[in-house]
Amino acid sequence: MTAPVEHLIFESSADLVATAAARFIAAVTAAQDARGVAAVALTGGSNGIALLRALAADSGTIDWSRVELYWGDDRFVPADDPERNCLQAREALLDHVPVDPARVHVMAASDGDFGDDIDAATADYARLVGPDTVFDLHLLGMGGEGHINSLFPHTDATAEDDRTVVAVTDSPKPPPRRITLTFPVVNASREVWFLVSGAEKAEAVAAAAQGASRHDWPCAGAHGTENTVWFLDQAAASQLS
Ligand SMILES: O=C(O)[C@H](O)[C@@H](O)[C@H](O)[C@H](O)COP(=O)(O)O
């Protein structure tokens, strides 16, 4: 049986984020009730970070000490570069809630433990996120050309069917060097949620709904094993039939 795909359409990105935050609390709490610890892959992007800010203001029943946090991708730049997704997440949420630092799994920065060696940094994350990794929830932002994580159209990373984590050294969107999770691990997640707003995303949203090839529109290839939810504002949903 195919897992359901929901399209939730909101008047504004603020409404989208408020509902995603409420559902995040419910999903994480349910995962903790079922399995003790919830495993979540975070995303960057405006809505992804706004969601974290909303959770910093009110995270309901979440026991943050029992949440394992990972990232879907990050930029391979110095640790203090504001482009780092994990730095943005730290400022938006992690500095404000009692997470267990041992359960916050950032991707290495270009001045971190592996220095400028992106392959070693990637291999390190692959030891953590392997073929048996199952996230309870994988959050995704999306670019106008349909990229998710650092999986861009017609790239090797998007074609990857075996490795769970790969290095990207020629990202079409700067900065060029990134580390990203791939489809095998994204699609092993119980729930995959897209947080998408803006008219420039509408064509990609519609392509995914029509079952496009993931090589053309990477967003079309991401599905949870239990549920896939598209949180959309009206502009992003405007080309859905
Ligand atoms: O790695 C990147 O270059 C960006 O973080 C990118 O992947 C972002 O998440 C999406 O483009 C959605 O971003 P917005 O929600 O801000 O449009």
TrEMBL record:
A molecular function (GO) term: 6-phosphogluconolactonase activity
The reaction(s) this protein catalyses: 6-phospho-D-glucono-1,5-lactone + H2O = 6-phospho-D-gluconate + H(+)
GO process terms (BP): carbohydrate metabolic process; pentose-phosphate shunt
Entry annotated with the keyword Transmembrane helix: no
InterPro entries named among the record's database cross-references: 6-phosphogluconolactonase_DevB, 6PGL, Glc/Gal-6P_isomerase, NagB/RpiA_transferase-like
Pfam families referenced in this protein's UniProt entry, alphabetically: Glucosamine_iso
Record's keyword terms, sorted: Hydrolase
Listed EC numbers: 3.1.1.31
Annotated Glucosamine/galactosamine-6-phosphate isomerase domain residues: 12-230
Pathway: Carbohydrate degradation; pentose phosphate pathway; D-ribulose 5-phosphate from D-glucose 6-phosphate (oxidative stage): step 2/3
Keyword Ligase belongs to the record: no
SUPFAM superfamilies: NagB/RpiA/CoA transferase-like (SSF100950)
Family: Belongs to the glucosamine/galactosamine-6-phosphate isomerase family. 6-phosphogluconolactonase subfamily.
Function recorded in the entry: Hydrolysis of 6-phosphogluconolactone to 6-phosphogluconate.
NCBIfam families: pgl
Name of this protein: 6-phosphogluconolactonase
